[in-house]
Design goal:
Distance between the termini: 33 Å
Number of strands: 27
Low-confidence stretches: none
Number of helices: 14
Bound molecules: adenosine monophosphate
Mean pLDDT: 89
Radius of gyration: 26 Å
Largest sheet: 6 strands, mixed
């Protein structure tokens, strides 16, 4: 069975196709979203999702989140004395989704189509595939998040020949894409984005304001209080969608601090963030050679597009209401599931032909001549420009700079800057050339970028016809098959907390946290319910456990804890 997975910065979710329709697969807690959070508890057990998040409130140093931002980098996380790479943490999330899907579908899940932000470069796409492999999933196809969302809207909307923009503001990333649908051909015209902008930044604005208004010295706060402030700010952000003037409350240093914030004041504070959103929007429109008025429809993706201030921003800019017919946080997973069904050649699913673009410019390093005749190296020569439809192949001819030059070095870069120092070096190739006076020898450098985001560089010496080819592989994720096998074995020893006890474990952790957050009479009440629940768990009597769980849940809600 093949499923679609949206491996998000904040939340992940899985979906599959059933009778022509994509459906979300609920997780072990009967929720659609599984937080992309991993923790290692005192017994060395791996916790994933809601339980890990709750555990992290009590033990922040044993919890990792937003690791998607660091996929494909050298960053490592130390959790309870074990070190993990971001792709390994992602693998735990994927493993959890896979298990939940298998339980729900009653079938083995062997393969997945996983989505990534359009802005993910080759390195991060490969890291995502590796995460799938470490989770025991075959991942042949990676799909760009906006493309996945577009499939969801394109198929169910049934409008033809539409030009639309996918506006995707997730927890940690912002992506904007312009697409065109002609009959069954979906063409991506341009993508742009900001890898460091998302809903979390909008939460931070509230946190900062809370700290400023209450004159809190942030350096004096411990990790637990910081996490509690973050949680309260997140709640307040969501309330701003329903109330005009919500109140944020949080316990700091034994004292409950409060803040009222109006929707208007919040919008003002978010102006710099809205400005940052405007830039990639403008760039995608320019790159797609269209005008704002040419966009027929704006579709929203990502939990953060639920914020009224984002919706108002779009209405003002595009003079139209965005399409909200699909839940913004489900659109990507649903599209990935449709793609998965297409891959599995499900005859019920209308085949859509996708054309994608290269999200960034690929080029090489050249030297330019100064007025005094000397050369300055480090300049960028773009070969495949961003937003070129892929697969693409482009050639550039480069000449020798010196007399009797014996070789030419091709440094392969990715990025948009005029100077290579600001771009990312992704590969290097040397080729020998016959000695000749400067400028008389040359090479044709051909970059070929395929649909799976693999770059092949071919260098041909023009005078001799000699050819050298190289597939550009990432620097960090060059794990050999042997290394992957070993790591897989190591990871398989790590136990993910058992599914059937998940709900109870989560409830106990919630109780633990609420107890820590409370004092006096409230503590006594929570303590009593917790003890009753623990006794019930020891008894292994199903009815008794359920009654005690209900009582504890009710008690926590009465104490003001929101799930
Ligand atoms: P995603 O990565 O798509 O799951 O998006 C997660 C982001 O969406 C987080 O920053 C959440 O705070 C934000 N989010 C989810 N629901 C809401 C809501 N109702 N109001 C405001 N922000 C939300």
């Amino acid at each position: 069975m093949i499923i679609g997975i949206d491996l998000g910065t904040t939340n992940s979710l899985a979906a599959y196709c059933k009778n022509k329709k994509a459906v979300i697969i609920p997780n072990r807690l009967q929720k659609n979203l599984t937080p992309s959070v991993v923790a290692v508890d005192e017994e060395g057990q791996i916790l994933v999702g809601e339980t890990a998040k709750e555990y992290g409130m009590l033990h922040p140093e044993r919890m990792a989140d937003v690791f998607k931002r660091f996929m494909g980098s050298k960053k490592e996380y130390d959790l309870g004395g074990r070190r993990f790479k971001p792709e390994e943490l992602s693998a735990f999330v994927l493993r959890c989704l896979k298990e939940d899907a298998e339980e729900y579908l009653g079938k083995k899940v062997t393969e997945a189509v996983i989505s990534v932000p359009a802005y993910f470069d080759d390195e991060r796409r490969k890291a995502t595939k590796l995460a799938g492999k470490l989770a025991g999933l075959k991942v042949e196809r990676i799909i760009s998040e906006p493309t996945a969302a577009a499939i969801t809207y394109g198929l169910y909307d049934k409008k033809e020949n539409t030009r639309f923009m996918v506006f995707d503001l997730g927890g940690g990333t912002f992506d904007v894409s312009i697409l065109e649908l002609y009959g069954t051909i979906l063409e991506v015209r341009a993508v742009a984005g900001d890898n460091y902008l998302g809903g979390e930044n909008f939460t931070e604005v509230i946190e900062q304001e809370f700290i400023r208004k209450n004159e809190i010295d942030i350096d004096k706060l411990d990790a637990k209080t910081l996490t509690a402030i973050h949680k309260a700010a997140e709640l307040c952000k969501r309330e701003l969608g329903e109330k005009k003037n919500p109140k944020m409350k949080c316990k700091v240093g034994g004292e409950t601090k409060e803040m009222n914030i109006t929707a208007k004041a919040y919008e003002k504070l978010c102006e710099p963030l809205l400005e940052r959103i405007r830039k990639p929007l403008q760039r995608s429109i320019t790159d797609a050679h269209v005008k704002i008025t040419d966009i027929d429809q704006v579709v929203l993706v990502g939990g953060a597009t639920r914020m009224p201030l984002i919706r108002e921003f779009i209405v003002k800019l595009f003079r139209q209401f965005p399409d909200t017919s699909v839940q913004p946080d489900e659109a990507v997973a649903l599209g990935a599931a449709i793609q998965a069904a297409m891959k599995a050649r499900d005859k019920d699913v209308k085949e859509i032909i996708l054309t994608d673009v290269c999200a960034f410019t690929l080029g090489t390093e050249v030297s330019v001549e100064r007025p005094d005749g000397s050369f300055e190296s480090g300049h960028y020569c773009p070969i495949i420009e961003r937003n070129t439809v892929i697969p693409a192949s482009r050639t550039e001819r480069l000449y020798t700079l010196h007399d009797d030059q014996e070789k030419i070095r091709i440094n392969v870069f990715q990025g948009e800057s005029r100077l290579t120092a600001n771009n990312l070096l992704i590969g290097t190739m040397d080729i020998r050339i016959p000695k000749k006076p400067r400028g008389e020898e040359s090479v044709d450098v051909t970059y070929t970028y395929d649909i799976n985001s693999i770059l092949e560089v071919e260098v041909k010496v023009v005078s001799t016809g000699r050819v050298k080819k190289q597939i550009i592989k990432g620097k960090y994720n060059t794990m050999t098959d042997e290394e992957i096998k070993n790591r897989l074995e190591e990871l398989s020893y790590l136990k993910i907390s058992p599914r059937d006890q998940e709900e109870n474990k989560l409830l106990l952790l919630r109780g633990e946290r609420c107890y820590e957050e409370s004092t006096g009479q409230r503590r006594t009440v929570i303590e009593r319910c917790m003890r009753e629940f623990e006794t019930a768990l020891d008894s292994r009597e199903r009815d008794q456990i359920m009654d005690a769980a209900d009582a504890l849940r009710k008690c926590l809600e009465e104490q003001g804890d929101e799930v």
